[in-house]
Write a structure and sequence with these properties.
Pfam families: COX4_pro_2. The chain is 51% helix and 7% strand. It has helices at 10-22, 72-92, 105-112, 122-153, 159-177, and strands at 54-59, 65-70. The chain has a two-stranded antiparallel ribbon with strand order 1-2. The longest helix has 32 residues, at 122-153.
Length: 184
């Protein structure tokens, strides 16, 4: 009995592909395949069976499970009830197009009077500088602490090694991340 290997080596695989690639289309023998030219009597979708019944599983609060099969009419009735419930529920809730809060009226009026370039941006600049500073120095602190803990708890590591490594990273990061002098 001949066994077919489940896996073949890459060399064998590519050798077989090369043999197949070398065959010209004209050299392929189709004589064992009978040509079909008459399609009378053929049925499209003969074995297609759409799922006419849907199965739903309902878990009750007491832990019991109910399995039900729904016919198409029942599914349609459930869908209609859900839509009616959703409509009633949405009618009772305030929508997003509620009237504006009165504290926004001055801002809305002022937005129409805004002239491009007239707004001071000092507060926005200070907020941005604060965000960038916290990001920059916070990242350096996290990196230094992570290095300290890694060197401390690695096999053969010690607290002194961790403090020295974390401190060196913190000092180097400080000189690298500090802001340039105002004159530049």
């Amino acid at each position: 009995m001949n066994r077919i290997p489940l896996t073949i080596s890459d060399e064998d695989f590519w050798a077989q592909i090369a043999v197949i690639d070398a065959i010209r289309d004209e050299d392929i023998d189709y004589s064992d395949i009978s040509p079909v030219r008459d399609f009378t009597g053929w049925e499209r979708g003969k074995f297609y069976r759409p799922n006419e019944r849907h199965t739903i599983i309902i878990r009750h609060p007491d832990g019991s499970v109910q399995i039900s099969h729904l016919e198409p009419e029942e599914r349609l009735a459930i869908r209609r009830r859900r839509l009616e419930y959703a409509d009633r529920f949405l009618e009772q809730r305030p929508m997003a197009d509620h009237p504006h809060h009165t504290s926004h009226d001055a801002a809305d009026h002022d937005a129409e009077a805004y002239v491009h370039g007239s707004m001071t941006i000092e507060e926005q600049r200070q907020t941005w500088d604060l965000f960038m500073g916290l990001t920059k120095w916070g990242s350096l602190a996290v990196a230094a602490i992570l290095l300290l803990l890694t060197l401390w708890f690695m096999p053969g590591g010690s607290l002194i090694t961790g403090v020295l490594g974390g401190g060196a990273l913190a000092v180097a990061g400080f000189f690298f991340l500090k802001s340039p002098k105002a004159g530049h």
